[in-house]
Amino acid sequence: MIGCVEFTQVCLQSLIDNKWPVAGLITKKKSIQNSDFIDLSVFSRKNNIPIHITENGNDINTEKWLRTKNPDYLLCLGWSHILSKTIIEIPCVCTIGYHPSYLPKNRGRHPLIWALILGLDKTGSTFFRMNEECDSGDIIHQKAIDILCEDNARSLYNRIGKIASQQLLEIMHLIQNKQIIYKEQNPEEVNYWRKRSTDDGLIDWRMSSQAIYNLVRALSEPYPYAHFTYKGKSLKILSCKIHKNNNPNIIPGTVLEIMSGSIIVKTFDSSVECQMIGAELNLLRGATFL
């Protein structure tokens, strides 16, 4: 298996709990690009899983180490780098990738975050046979997942992890019984999501309350939080809820109330109550406009 995030550990734990053999783990010691990064070295030692540390998974040392394992399958679960053809083709059967969307829709980066930002009511959990192109291989197993109005990044992340780990067990049984069927993706349904930038998390109070709510919940823990600027400082919003205040004479960005742990701010169409870090909230005391 190759991976370095919380999701990787959830899937590993599912395999271990159900007595499926894991020949080894390729992972990272640290990562600045994965908000959900987790150091899996302790977990691996505890479960007697051989481990190999790499930066991107495509170096010659990783190739040599993987070849010594002579794997039938390589599971790529929670890895932000595109694997080379050389690595993908090492397993005797295939490399299995994972993408938290209902492929072929919504290929690309940050699918969980974009699904919440866009206010989608459904996403998916898809395992596929990897090739050199991004998220384009034949589908092995997938399930549709409802996105609830109250979902945030953490609740959706956890639910997807639980569903995916169960799918993985089903795939193991299909492999064992030689019953895997590969389904080609429909190219007419393909779209791509780009990499999220820091600016994508910036709140403009002229947005609708629903759009702000979606942005805040999409970038909540384990991600770096939506933010707004005040007097040159970037202030984080931990969570928010929509209030009804449709007074057309109040300018968006007006602070309507400051409470012990949150502020209420006028938006384009109503207002939102935003929970904030206490030290950052104190900077807003006495503010009139953001």
Tell me the layout of helices and strands.
Elements: H1 6-17, E1 25-27, H2 41-46, E2 51-53, H3 60-69, E3 73-76, H4 85-88, E4 94-99, E5 107-108, H5 111-117, E6 122-129, E7 139-146, H6 153-176, E8 192-193, H7 209-218, E9 226-230, E10 233-243, E11 255-258, E12 262-266, E13 271-276, H8 278-281
Parallel strand pairs: 1-2, 3-4, 5-8
Antiparallel strand pairs: 4-6, 6-7, 9-10, 10-13, 11-12, 12-13
Throw out a few tags for this protein:
290 residues, alpha/beta, Rossmann fold, Methionyl-tRNA Fmet Formyltransferase, Chain A, domain 2, 5-stranded antiparallel beta sheet
Instruction: Determine the CATH topology of the largest domain.
Output: Rossmann fold
Number of domains: 2
* Main sheet: strands, sense, barrel: 5 strands, antiparallel
Order of helices and strands: HEHEHEHEEHEEHEHEEEEEH
Rg: 22 Å
What is the CA–CA distance across the termini?
A: 47 Å
What order do the strands of the largest sheet run in, or round the barrel if closed?
Answer: 9-10-13-12-11
How does CATH name the architecture of the largest domain? 3-Layer(aba) Sandwich
| Annotated CATH homologous superfamily of the largest domain | Formyl transferase, N-terminal domain
- Form type: elongated
- Structural class, by secondary structure, is alpha/beta
> Strand share of the residues?
15-25%
- In DSSP terms, counting alpha (H) and pi (I) runs of 4 or more, how many helices? 8
Number of strands: 13
What's the average pLDDT?
A: 95
Oligomer: single chain
Query: Which ranges are low-confidence, i.e. pLDDT below 50, for 5 or more consecutive residues?
Result: none
Q: Output the CATH class name of the largest domain.
A: Alpha Beta
Estimate the helix proportion, in percent.
Answer: 25-40%
